[in-house]
Amino acid sequence: MIQLGKRQELTVVKRVDFGVYLADTGEEGNREERVLLPKKEVPQDVEVGSSLEVFIYRDSMDRPIATTRQPEFSVGETAVLKVKETGKIGAFLGWKLEKDLLLPFKEQTAKVQEGDECLVALYIDKSGRLCTTMKVYPYLRKDSPYKKDDRVEGRIYEIIENFGVFVAVDDCFCGMIPKREPAGSVKVGDKITARVAGVLEDGKLTLTLREKAYIQIGKDAELIMEMLKKEGGRLPFNDKADPDFIRSVTGMSKNEFKRAVGNLYKQRLIVIEADGIKLT
After folding, report:
1. What phi, psi does 30 have (nearest 5°)?
2. What is the dihedral sign for C-alpha 44, 47, 52, 58?
3. What is residue 222's DSSP assignment?
């Protein structure tokens, strides 16, 4: 069976002036189902009966065609491609083959512009054409080599308010910064460095942008000191404030804020008041 969007080994079954025809001659193949490999891509020593590894796609006339070139990915895989242009139905992404790939508007997790780099997966749409999607969650791998507290690099591909920030670690492994974790002003397409906070049973990575608590306390304390100085030496809230308010103002969870305030208090750098904190 000749599979669109896949790398596969096919057999030369006929030579013509403009190339060779290939077919799957295996046990489950159909010799009558053939695809053309254009003459410009036919290796010199190829004869009828020779096997070739090719990739199957559709040409500008929407006909299945073979190529010996190896594109960035196959159906079901992910790759980072650049936006060549945008149009009325979506964006068009360049890759190693002539016909650009469509990224429909409905498959974009954020609006893209010409020149942007997008992490996308390759799939076959309802009309039988190769297409791409930024909704790569189902296509990401869950067999990463990383363990708790490892530092990793990833690309943000989707942000869902009720769940968190979805990250493709190394552009291929499934990771997420949960909603409870501060993520700052990150956006889709950003490359980030994070720490593995945990590895779930199914292999997905839980990530955080923050350091281990004993390291982060010092950084959080420095941030609070900067805020105090900027606000004239006093903040009108303390660790008794609403957790959501603390997070919106400081980017910290209530526990993280409480630990940092406690650290400053022990150093006698601040005084904790009933309705705020102030520099000593």
Report:
1. -130, 105
2. positive
3. H
- DSSP codes, 167-187: EEETTTEEEEEETTS--TT--
> Which of 219, 223, 180 shows the shortest CA–CA distance to 198?
180
The per-residue pLDDT for range 7-23, each reduced to its tens digit, is 999 999 999 999 999 99
Q: Give the mean pLDDT of 255-262.
A: 84
Helices 243-250 and 213-230: crossing angle in degrees, nearest 10, is 80
DSSP string, 124-163: E-TTS-EEEES--GGGSBS--S--TT-EEEEEEEEEETTT
Query: Phi/psi at 96 (nearest 5 deg)?
Result: -75, -5
Q: What is the mean pLDDT of residues 33-59?
A: 92
* Residue-wise burial string across 110-126, b where 16 or more C-beta atoms lie within 10 A, e elsewhere: eebeeebebbbbbbeee
232 pLDDT tier (thresholds 50, 70, 90): very high
Report d(CA 7, CA 96) in Å as an integer: 14
Structure tokens at 68: 């010996």
Give this prediction's pTM. Answer: 0.73
Taking the CA atoms of 69, 70, 73 and 76 in sequence, report the sign of the dihedral they define: positive
Q: Can you tell me whether residue 55 is helix, strand or coil?
A: strand
The alpha carbon of residue 60 and the mean position of all alpha carbons in its chain are separated, in whole angstroms, by: 29
Give the integer Cα–Cα distance in Å for 221 and 260: 5
pLDDT value at position 267?
86
Confidence of residue 85 (pLDDT cuts 50, 70, 90): very high
